[in-house]
Amino acid sequence: MAEVTTADRAERATRPRLEGQVAIVTGAGSKGTGVGTGKGIAVRFAQEGARVVLVDRHQDRADDTRAWIEREGGEAAVVITDLTDPTANERIVDEALSRFGRIDHLVSNAAAYSHSKFLDLPKEEFEEVLAVNLVAPFLQSQAVIPHIIEAGGGSVTYISSILAMRGGGAAPYAASKAGLMGLTTCLANTFGTDGIRFNSVAPGMVDTPVRNQLIARAGVDPTKIGGSKATSLGIVGDAWDIANTVLFLASDEGRYITGLLIPVDGGSTTRMG
Questions:
Q1: Which among 137, 234, 116, 126 has a CA at the least distance from the CA of 175?
Q2: C-alpha span between 133 and 172 (Å, rounded)
Q3: Most Cβ neighbours (<10 Å): which of 15, 113, 164, 222?
Q4: Are strands 51-56 and 154-159 parallel, antiparallel or unpaired?
Q5: Do 209 and 34 meet the contact criterion of CB atoms below 8 Å apart?
Q6: Is residue 125 predicted with pLDDT exceeding 70?
Q7: How far apart are alpha carbons 230 and 3 in whole angstroms?
Q8: Which residue range is the domain that position 82 belongs to?
Q9: Which residues contact 154 (CB under 8 A, 6 or more apart)?
């Protein structure tokens, strides 16, 4: 990786933070009212000059994110795929290279959830969650790392969860999200000298369409789950809080941060109850 001088960094601070760079964001669409984390990340990356490859299972959701980016003058491509498909990562990389010529960043945000009680949980359901939440990020990383090295370095960010750190979530989801931390530390120390930074961001209970859908499915009053009283700041976060953290990590401002699990949770993991 080429040496970056203090003067270079000062000059870059006057330009969009990801100008000329290309990012892949999985789970880049969102359903319903509000903004999901993947959509927020993709939009913020585009606002800072990145061309973004939007990966999602749903055409309408991905198209909505692309339309937002294009309304603001940005560029985006869409890949519709199931991330458990063995051909998915080849298609994603091919689209990024054919449309934009390089890959600088990967944000692995797509996630699957389990709704069964632990003692009733079929092995197949556990494996389905792991396939999306842990195996897919592993394979995505294998696919993009050589291209990020070729581009001169960049970042990989996995979207984990504070449920990997504390109780209260479904076991398959928590276990798969905790597994991302092992992947983060291993790859950070394997590819750091190639100029790639690896981090995991762990959202707390933030106001997103997925969160609201899960609460509705459970038949719980959303005002009584993860409200402002559960955080040290006395406020509830949203997708933009996650997006801005991921953007920071991908930018030159995050150049000295790697191998970490970073909670973005209003301080909820610091509280006793």
A1: 126
A2: 9
A3: 164
A4: unpaired
A5: yes
A6: yes
A7: 44
A8: 18-204+238-263
A9: 21, 103, 104, 105, 148, 195, 196, 197, 250
| CATH code where residue 149 lies | 3.40.50.720
Mean pLDDT score of the chain, rounded to an integer? 91
Residue 93 lies in a domain: yes
What is the structure's pLDDT at 229? 77
Q: Is residue 218 part of a domain?
A: no
Active site residue 173: yes
pLDDT at position 7 is: 63
- Per-residue pLDDT at 218 exceeds 50: no
- Residue 143 to residues 91, 92, 189, 199, Cα–Cα distance (Å): 10, 9, 18, 17
Instruction: Name the active-site residue from 113, 158, 173, 256.
Output: 173
The answer to whether position 211 is within a domain reads no
Question: Which of 131, 26, 147 minimizes the C-alpha distance to 85?
Answer: 131
3-state SS class at 221: coil
- Count of residues making up the chain: 273
Residue 106: beta bridge partners? Answer: 24, 156
Q: Which of 219, 222, 224 is nearest to 209 (CA)?
A: 222
